[in-house]
Amino acid sequence: MDHESNEEQTLASNLQSLSFSDPLSNQFNSLNDLCYEISSLQDLASRGSWLSILDKVARARKLSLLRKPHEHLIYLSYNVLALTKLRQYGDAAEELDSLEDFDSAQYKYESYPDHYPNRSGSMVPFALRWLHAEIPHKLGKRQETLDRLYTLLDFVRTKLKERESKSIDVCFDRWKKKEAFLINAISCHHLSYKEFGVCLTLLQSLLNVDSLDPVLLSKLGYIQMQLGDLDGSKASFNRVESLMKEGNSGALLDEVEFKNLICRNKAMIYLVGKDYISAVREYDKCIERDPTDVVATNNKALCLMYSRDLSDSIKVLESALERVPTVALNETLVVNLCSMYELAYVNHGDIKKTLSNWIARVAPDDFDSSCTRI
């Protein structure tokens, strides 16, 4: 069971929420004042219409609709993200190779005083820096991605130190979110290769500095669990619960997300003890608060399957796909549902084909239809 079955999607979603509004973020009344028709790009991205984004970017470039330097960078960011989502990693790398070094004067506001009077600093969106770090891994160059991610983390922390030393509160929380985002991204890379010791050292060193991040504390608990340190895992989860009681919700969580994080942590402890009924109870609390909590939905279904209640486990996943298809439709959930079909039905091939046909009608452009295993 993967406690964060849609972690990559979550990272990408969080990235989009904090990255593309960086340039000139506080100067305009609407997104379209910031950049040419950027609101439509964001809308297309939220719906998974990545092919439409490629068409829109190509049209804007062909017709020379982008007037300012930062607009070219924002559109390039969306183009690279769309190519990445569509698994066209070579094309995404070529786009990135067309850029100069991110610290080049070409990407500084002060290099264009007519466009950006009285403004200085980099106009490179954080999203573009992150994509530049991630693409090599997609092309089989894992170490290059890790090197770039750690370099980017140093860059973010430098920005945070500058703001702390000068007592600058503007955008400080946004940079903290970027730091947390990168820590999660780096942890995911190490976890995918079962490098639990590296993750443990990384997270503990970070938490010595900032012990108030419930997401990082929870991740620490999961890693301790993987290493067999159940007492340490419980202690980390208890610290998360204490933060809730103290009103320290962290930079990335609202109240519902925080409560659901605590319930998912409790459920994992129950799972280790094979107390599936209690785990299901915790996941039910999550789903009742937030029907779009796909991690809770997916794991509840697996708990029911482990309890030999295959019929109800199938109903849980089918119901989620019916109620919140745009959220629930991810490859991990569909793989699990198809596995349950194979266990439950003799004619599972026909059932999976019906599911596959439905997915073809509603799925975003980047959905991997091979996960139905037809």
Describe this entry's structure for a reader.
Helices cover 69% and strands 0% of the residues. It is mostly helical. The two termini are 23 Å apart.
Q: What is the strand and helix layout of this fold?
A:
Blueprint: H1 7-19, H2 31-34, H3 38-46, H4 50-62, H5 69-85, H6 89-97, H7 126-138, H8 142-165, H9 172-192, H10 196-209, H11 214-226, H12 230-246, H13 255-272, H14 276-289, H15 294-306, H16 310-323, H17 325-328, H18 331-344, H19 348-362
Structural class: mainly alpha
Q: How much β-strand is present in the residues?
A: under 5%
Helicity, as a percent range: 55-70%
Overall morphology: globular
Q: So how many helices?
A: 19
Instruction: Give the SSE order as H and E letters.
Output: HHHHHHHHHHHHHHHHHHH
Overall pLDDT: 88
Q: Which regions have little confidence, pLDDT < 50, spanning 5+ residues?
A: 1-8
Number of DSSP strand runs: 0
The CA-CA distance between the termini, in Å, is 23 Å
Q: Largest sheet, described in full? A: none
Q: Gyration radius, to the nearest Å?
A: 22 Å
